[in-house]
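hey m, so remember when u said the tokens were messed up on ur end? i reran from scratch. heres the input so u can diff it against urs
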Amino acid sequence: MTLAIDTKVELNNGVAMPLFGLGTWNATGSLGRKAVAWALESGYRLVDTASAYGNEREVGEAVRTSGLQREEVFVTTKLRPSETGPGTALRAFEASRRRLGLDHVDLYLIHWPGDDRDSRLGAWRDLEKLLGDGRCRAIGVSNYEVSHLREILEAGLTVPAVNQVEFSPFGQRREVHDFGRSHGIRLEGYSPLTRGERLDDDTVQAVARSHGRSAAQVLLRWAVQKEVITIPKSNHRERIVENAAVFDFELSAEDMAVLDGLEGGRRRRR
């Protein structure tokens, strides 16, 4: 499978989104700004942030000062769970956009579904307005289960372009992935490196040794070969560079099957 760091996938509204990017959870202040700058220097073209991360200003500054054209960088941010009431999302989006210092956002997500159906659907209708007037190029959700996705479809609203969930061989979200795929909802995976907790797994280590690669690179390659949008997070320059070096080797069908067999383990909130 031929892939490159600038490989893009097409969302259900025709927008092209990079397959690989940088997650910025817990990347604040000058270090967060540097992490984004290092990633862009290393060829990353997707940056994922959120209002709840408290780093939109740093992310926006790094993008604006990168020397890249705005259309070269795909920027995602997210609506806080506390801002999902009808009309609130529009104000929250504008606050995020001002902090980023950008004229538009490429992808805007509802960060968490919350417990109230009316609030979820009200917020989603607000996101439809943002999409309609061009303030964002695509809209989606994060941490949604099949039941949450189904209620959007049953209400006859815009089908989400993306559902961002935790995704690794240890937690593959197969039901969510299959449902999304059948309805044109692209899966995006956060915590692909399991926050380092499973890098010493014997199976992952064995596959890594067979390719002369790190365990982290194997986990990332597994995800991108599944064409799941993948956003590893790091604040360390050398790891940011290493994480991107997954486009010059390929896992075999046997490797993929062995890694697929690792399903199981807890999920985390992010």
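this time it looks ok to me. The chain has a mean pLDDT of 95. if urs says something different then somethings off w ur setup not the seq
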